[in-house]
């Protein structure tokens, strides 16, 4: 029987002790978030001799489309047999990472508990082996993030767009991730999550506050989304898969 969506995902949840002291010096906080725009998504471009060209895609927000699971998107891409894809899902606690992961797996998102360790969802189908790593975002867990950097194909960073008080904190964490040697050159997708909430900041405002426009060493994109309603999730994952296909050629 053929796979339907991502119903064949095999889930395993592993928790580990979280005792660590983070001694790294924090970077300077991002610039103040000031402007609001009607924004869909935009992406950075590969650097060339120290200069980066960037293309921006602007459009009105579209109504929610039917969610396409990660596996069904990847089925459309040509790939060598048993090719492995490693996706790292990071962000602060309560950003919506686990909800997003369950949405990709076509699982129930009505009841989510905080991730104390990490969640792994993996599947083998039609020549793809997909490993999505959802690492807890609590402060005591973040020092363990670096244990999962190696061999990452795409970094997905999730932000709670409605929690403006933590924009500075989430910006500092992302800035540190982008300086990690093991993540050098790895494409990054920023999901500006919880856009279904009226208090959510638009993706353009978040991108400006995070200074994403200064990124020169990798492809990047920020995508407005709601992990609960699935709006915007498909667009973000389509971008992810296109980059996977390019990097794996």
Automatic annotation (TrEMBL):
Per the record, the GO terms for biological process are: protein transport
This one is known as: ADP-ribosylation factor-like protein 3
Record carries keyword Oxidoreductase: no
Q: Give the location in the cell.
A: Cytoplasm, Cytoskeleton, Microtubule organizing center, Centrosome; Golgi apparatus membrane
Locate the residues binding Mg(2+).
98, 115
What is the native source organism of this protein? Megalops atlanticus (Tarpon)
The residues that hold GTP are 91-98, 137, 193-196
* Keyword entries, A-Z: Golgi apparatus, GTP-binding, Lipoprotein, Magnesium, Metal-binding, Myristate, Nucleotide-binding, Protein transport, Transport
